[in-house]
Design goal:
It contains eight helices and eight strands. The chain is of the alpha+beta class and about 220 residues long. It has a single domain, classed as Beta Barrel (Cyclophilin).
Length: about 220
C-alpha cells in the first residue's frame, strides 16, 4: 500500500539559508505570508474554498469539526492568497493530487517549521477528500493532497485526517497533469528539495506541463 509519510522528508531537509539564497531573484513576496504566526484566525464551522486552476475550477467544503487546527490553517492560507500560482507538483492517478509548496522560496522557508499539531481521524481518506501531507508526528504545515481513490484503508491508520472534500469540479481534479509521475524516490517527478530551494523557477523550467492554482478564495 502506498504511504504519505515520506512525502515531506526531502523538503524538510533543505536549509532555510539555502532556500532564501535561491529565492533572491524571485518576485517580492506578499509581506502577510512572511509572518505565519500572524495568520491565526478561527475558521467558520463550515466554509467553502474555490480553486481556479489551469484546468478549470473546483470547490472544497471544509468541516471544522473534522480537524479544527487543520481547518483553521487552511482557512488562513486561502484568505491570505498563499495558494496563488502554486503548482500541483505530485499527481499520481488513482492515488493523490498533492500541492501546497509555495512558488517563492522565501515564503516557503518561513512556513517550513510553522507546523500544527496532529489530530485524530474523524473523517477518512475517501475519494475527493482533502487531507494534509506530513513527514511524521506534528508536521502538518502547508502541503495537502486530494484523494483520487479510496485510500482510507491505508492512510486512515497512519493518522491522516481529512478536513474537507471536493463538492464540485472533481472532474477538474481528475484532469490535472499527471505525466511526470511520482516524485523521488518513487518516480522521476519533481523533487521536493528542489521545489523548496528554487520554487516555481525550478518547476517552470524542468516540469513546464504541471497545472497550477491561479487563485483560491473563500466563497459563500
Amino acid at each position: 500500500m502506498r504511504s504519505l509519510i515520506w512525502v515531506l522528508a526531502v523538503a524538510l531537509s533543505v536549509s532555510v539559508t539555502g532556500a532564501i539564497g535561491q529565492g533572491k531573484t524571485a518576485k517580492k513576496p506578499n509581506p502577510v505570508l512572511m509572518n505565519p504566526s500572524g495568520l491565526k484566525e478561527k475558521a467558520p464551522s463550515t466554509f467553502k474554498a474555490q480553486f481556479k486552476t489551469t484546468k478549470g475550477t473546483f470547490v472544497v467544503e471544509v468541516k471544522r469539526a473534522w480537524s479544527p487546527a487543520g481547518a483553521d490553517r487552511f482557512y488562513n492560507l486561502v484568505k491570505s492568497g498563499f495558494f496563488d500560482d502554486v503548482k500541483f507538483f505530485r499527481v499520481v492517478p488513482r492515488f493523490v493530487v498533492q500541492f501546497g509548496m509555495h512558488g517563492n522560496p522565501q515564503v516557503a522557508a518561513k512556513w517550513r517549521e510553522a507546523n500544527i499539531p496532529d489530530e485524530p481521524v474523524v473523517t477518512g481518506n475517501k475519494r475527493g477528500f482533502l487531507t494534509y501531507a506530513k513527514a511524521g508526528p506534528n508536521t502538518r504545515s502547508t502541503q495537502f493532497f486530494i484523494n483520487l481513490g479510496d485510500n482510507s484503508g491505508s492512510l486512515d491508520p497512519q493518522g491522516f485526517p481529512a478536513f474537507g472534500h471536493v463538492v464540485s469540479g472533481m472532474e477538474v481534479v481528475d484532469k490535472l497533469y499527471s505525466g511526470y509521475g511520482d516524485g523521488p524516490p518513487m518516480g522521476s517527478g519533481p523533487d521536493q528539495g528542489m521545489i523548496a530551494a528554487q520554487g516555481n523557477a525550478y518547476l517552470n523550467k524542468d516540469y513546464p506541463k504541471l497545472d497550477a492554482i491561479i487563485t483560491a478564495t473563500i466563497v459563500k
